[in-house]
User: Which sequence fits this backbone?
């Protein structure tokens, strides 16, 4: 049997249950057996349910796969999920497994052994969301603090973990949705959405990595970014003209600091009109890029979805003629203020509009850019009063951060002004903005990625985005939006990135050095030390703030920055191999300790440290004036990366961390491929038991999709290293091995 439809008497509705594979079960409820929500923005591949075994008794319907048994009570629809050993992993709370109140759909589950709830996308505050309530509504909030909930991205997915078993829930609903994880009552958690259907997937682990693998099996995985996109990147709102961009590049050379990408922010455009170039500031945009490319720099421009309302502007005129912009139900085109003033917004839900946008991008692609930076795609609108204030403050009074609203005026979402709820999307106006809001950024990123593949099929791009939804990893890297140059935001990034990684997005980073406000030297040094472990490593700062390039903070800080940026490049073969793992399984690169040590009950407590792949444990310094910290080392032997001193875990140790040291420990049994002399790969081996999958390809083209790559398994037993080619489709590399103490 491939699916079972059950009547739920207490709701007078129906449940359709199907097994996506032996570990993933879909539960979909419908009022009239129509299952209107028969599409998904997050799950794009065709899913063919597998056969399952079913049994029936008077009160119960039972289905089983090779991993799970699911029992459904025929009287009230109550669902219980068991593993092979008959342990109940999850059960509905009382008979509230499905409840509809007006348009809202709810699902209540018992809190059992779950020690922690993680994931939920991009979240401030604690790593473990047990006892918290969270909302999903993409929001531009430049003043976020640890107690602010929703931000630029929405990922209605979580991982429930305890040392015995992990499972995940993906609530495939794009409306404004909520998760109350035992805040209202510690005996249950519940999730609900303002509208749509209750359509969710139960994803069994039993390990947390397997849950993420299952979740990304549904929502997709990242492509391999080009190798250069893993290097250091420099940005600023804005490098004002061609000369400044070139000077920045020259300075990197002069200072002997590697840098692969320079970004051009909104001021490269002609009056903030997307797909145009200001000819006064950038008279030779194409030539500038060509020259920079020769010197080893790539250029990535920003693109905003807001199209200036201007009758003499081609993109606007064409969009109007073709009827591509978002409208209200009454056919009136929606107009909102963004950088160019009055702007209109493409309806990215429509395939032809995405195609058109991708085509428009071609103008820039042909000028030699190497990627696209998608911004303001929550979509973010600046209300007209704010807009005037902002222009006054930023452009005339040189403010260092956006105005804060007096608290008596501060109502929810003050800064998140977005398209009106009256806007309707789609060919036949079949979607309300309430349904599309959270996926607008995802669809823009998709347009951008697909447009790139059409325009420049021979090269992988770097696409980054601020807004997104579950599945964004297929198209884009994500940065965590507008943070500040404050210690609290350095700290918050450690947690946000762990949860975003668990949510299936591996290519992530925060603005290194902080975006708003001036960065102080000590904070900058600490942020660079941490930033080399962000999968996406970009320094970016806001208009009117102090310049934030590595040489802006004095010689000592610059030396620290150089040392760490160079270390990042040294670790590139290791990092690229981790990206391969992310592409294959969805495993994050920056990992919570519980991912590597799922059975360790203490691992969840140390959210201020993380794993960089399977080998490095990183314990950042996130407080001013600190030069030592406690580090929790899970079970096993650990090497201090800096002096190779060994430690036995589990243990908490005190480590010195003068300004130029971030505590890093390497797990015994690690094999770390690093960049060596010439084209050689240096394998640094830390004695013990372990293995590592080393991946390589040309680093730039899509040839890997045709099998043109190498995959090598290195295995280590005591201090004996062996290697085996699992796949050999690319030229051979020379490896040089150094075994520690060996
Ligand atoms: C938004 C972006 C920021 C960018 C600025 C100007 O605030 O988040 O990164 O620099 O817009 O384009």
Assistant:
């Amino acid at each position: 049997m491939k699916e079972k439809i059950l009547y739920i008497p207490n709701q007078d509705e129906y449940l359709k249950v199907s097994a996506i594979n032996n570990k993933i079960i879909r539960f979909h409820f419908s009022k009239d057996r129509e299952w209107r929500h028969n599409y998904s923005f997050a799950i794009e591949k065709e899913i063919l349910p597998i056969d399952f075994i079913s049994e029936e008794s008077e009160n119960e319907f039972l289905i089983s796969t090779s991993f799970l048994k699911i029992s459904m009570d025929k009287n009230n629809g109550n669902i219980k999920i068991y593993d092979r050993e008959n342990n109940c992993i999850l059960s509905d709370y009382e008979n509230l497994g499905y409840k509809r109140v007006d348009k809202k759909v709810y699902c209540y589950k018992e809190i059992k052994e779950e020690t922690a709830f993680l994931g939920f996308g991009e979240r401030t505050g604690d790593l473990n969301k047990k006892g918290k309530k969270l909302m999903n509504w993409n929001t531009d909030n430049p003043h976020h603090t640890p107690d602010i909930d929703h931000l630029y991205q929405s990922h209605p997915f979580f991982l429930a973990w305890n040392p015995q078993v992990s499972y995940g829930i993906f609530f495939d609903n794009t409306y404004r949705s909520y998760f109350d994880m035992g805040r209202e009552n510690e005996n249950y958690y519940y999730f609900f959405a303002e509208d749509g259907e209750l359509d969710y997937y139960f994803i069994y682990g039993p390990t947390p990595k397997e849950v993420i693998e299952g979740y990304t099996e549904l929502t997709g995985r990242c492509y391999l970014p080009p190798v250069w996109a893993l290097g250091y990147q420099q940005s600023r709102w804005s490098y004002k003209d061609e000369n400044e961009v070139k000077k920045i590049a020259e300075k990197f050379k002069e200072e002997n600091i590697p840098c692969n990408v320079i970004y051009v922010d909104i001021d490269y455009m002609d009056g903030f009109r997307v797909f145009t170039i200001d000819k006064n500031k950038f008279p030779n945009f194409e030539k500038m890029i060509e020259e920079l490319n020769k010197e080893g720099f790539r250029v990535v421009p920003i693109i905003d979805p807001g199209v200036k309302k201007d009758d003499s502007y081609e993109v606007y005129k064409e969009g109007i003629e073709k009827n591509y912009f978002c409208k209200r139900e009454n056919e009136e085109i929606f107009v909102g203020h963004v950088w160019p003033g009055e702007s209109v917004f493409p309806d990215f839900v429509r395939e032809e509009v995405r195609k058109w946008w991708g085509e428009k991008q071609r103008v820039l692609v042909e000028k030699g850019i190497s990627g696209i930076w998608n911004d303001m795609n929550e979509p973010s609108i600046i209300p007209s009063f704010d807009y005037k204030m902002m222009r006054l403050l930023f452009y005339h009074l040189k403010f260092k951060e956006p105005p804060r609203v007096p608290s008596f005026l501060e109502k929810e979402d003050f800064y998140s002004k977005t398209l009106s709820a009256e806007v309707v999307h789609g060919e036949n106006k079949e979607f309300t903005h309430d349904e599309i809001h959270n996926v607008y950024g995802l669809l823009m990123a998709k347009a951008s990625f697909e447009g790139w593949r059409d325009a420049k099929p021979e090269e992988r791009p770097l696409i980054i985005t601020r807004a997104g939804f579950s599945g964004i990893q297929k198209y884009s890297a994500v940065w965590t939006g507008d943070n500040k140059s404050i210690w609290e935001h350095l700290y918050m990034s450690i947690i946000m990135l762990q949860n975003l990684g668990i949510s299936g997005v591996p290519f992530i980073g925060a603005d290194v050095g902080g975006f708003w406000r001036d960065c102080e030297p000590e904070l900058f040094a600490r942020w660079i030390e941490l930033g080399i472990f962000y999968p996406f490593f970009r320094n970016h700062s806001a208009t009117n703030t102090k310049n934030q390039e590595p040489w802006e903070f004095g010689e000592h800080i610059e030396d620290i920055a150089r040392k760490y940026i160079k270390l990042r490049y040294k670790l590139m073969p290791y990092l690229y191999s981790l990206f391969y793992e992310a592409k294959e399984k969805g495993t994050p690169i920056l990992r919570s300790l519980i991912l590597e040590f799922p059975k360790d009950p203490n691992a969840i407590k140390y959210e201020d440290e993380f794993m960089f792949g399977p080998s490095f444990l990183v314990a950042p310094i996130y407080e001013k004036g600190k030069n030592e910290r406690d580090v929790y080392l899970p079970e096993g032997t650990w090497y201090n990366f800096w002096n190779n001193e060994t430690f036995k875990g589990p243990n908490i140790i005190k480590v010195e961390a003068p300004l130029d040291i971030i505590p890093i420990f390497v797990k015994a049994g690690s094999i770390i491929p690093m960049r060596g002399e010439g084209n050689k790969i240096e394998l640094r081996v830390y004695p013990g038991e372990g293995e590592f999958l080393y991946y390589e390809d040309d680093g730039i083209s899509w040839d890997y999709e045709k099998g043109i790559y190498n995959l090598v398994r290195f295995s280590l037993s005591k201090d004996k290293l062996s290697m085996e080619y699992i796949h050999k489709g690319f030229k051979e590399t020379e490896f040089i091995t150094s075994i520690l103490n060996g």
